[in-house]
Amino acid sequence: MFTSVKPTVRHIVPEDLKGRSLLKVVYIVLEAQYQSSLSTAVRSINKKSD
């Protein structure tokens, strides 16, 4: 079974960079359940103000 996700669905950009640099991360996974975990982690990092 092959699962494909459109890149635009997983494109996450912080609302405010707060002086930080924007970093692009590319990840390749075989199991779809990891995509949600990575997206949650990115959103959590984006919320931090440090």
Task: Give the tags.
mainly alpha; single chain; elongated; 50 residues
Write the layout of secondary structure elements.
Elements: H1 33-47
Note down, in words, how this protein is organized.
It is a single chain. The protein is built from one helix and no strands. It is an all-alpha fold.
Radius of gyration: 13 Å
N- to C-terminal distance: 41 Å
Indicate the percent of residues in helices: 25-40%
* Assembly state (oligomeric): single chain
- SS-based class: mainly alpha
Which percent range describes the beta-strand content? Answer: under 5%
In DSSP terms (H or I, runs of 4 or more residues), the helix count works out at 1
Low-confidence stretches: none
Shape: elongated
Mean pLDDT: 77
Summarize the structure.
The chain has 50 residues and is mostly helical.
